[in-house]
Amino acid sequence: MDILLDDPVIEQEFQALLRKIRLYKNGEVSVSMKEKGITYRINWGVSIMDLRNIAKEHIPSHLLALKLWNKQWRETMILATLLDEPKLVSEQQMDFWTKSFENSEIAEQASANLWWKSPPAYVKALEWCRGKKHWVRYTAVHLIGRLAMSDKKSPDEMFEPFFEELVPLSRDMALSVVLERTLIILANRSESLSQMINEFIEVLKNSDSEVSKELASNLDQAINF
After folding, report:
1. pLDDT digits (tens, 9 = 90+) for 165-197
2. How many CA atoms lie within 13 A of 17 on its CB side?
3. Rounded distance between C-alpha atoms, residue 75 and residue 40, angstroms
4. pTM of full prediction above 0.90
5. Claim to verify: residue 191 and residue 130 sit in the same structural domain
6. Same domain, residue pair 25 and 128
7. Which domain holds residue 78?
8. Are the C-beta atoms of residues 3 and 26 closer than 8 Å to each other?
9. Domain count, the chain
């Protein structure tokens, strides 16, 4: 990971952000999230909309993002994904943060706000499909969908390598929902990817996994080929 250098201006901004977070705290939201299994070391219950508005008041800064992430509050971690500079994000940082994810919210926020904009995005998504931790694999699948939705400049061929990796992931029931969402996004991106998804569904139908077959059935109903 990057070494944090002492910067008085960034430190001042960091402390200002911590004060703003406390102003927007909502204990009921925090308790509700915990009851749903979305846990953090510290969660002030600030809404995503409020966090986005707070982020708009600050200029993106890689150093500030690193300081925010290291604080390990729910809100500082989400702000880190909103305020980092994608071009400065390294593979090492992406691995370090992603391996620490412990719930779907932070995985999806990092993927949607930062990872897809970062230069190593496609490489890391492919690598993370083979990850040992559930949330690493979850992030990989979500990131593929986010790239398909938001990265309009990349050719469809960039997504072809993912299909081989998604076959074994289709057997994991814990990934079924995020896989279904991602594959629907891919199918809607272009005719060529729609055809690939159609062929992928046929592969799943012939699988020896009931979880994969159920995913294929759900996709058949959700996608209009």
Report:
1. 999 999 999 999 999 999 999 999 999 999 999
2. 32
3. 10
4. yes
5. yes
6. no
7. 1-84
8. no
9. 2
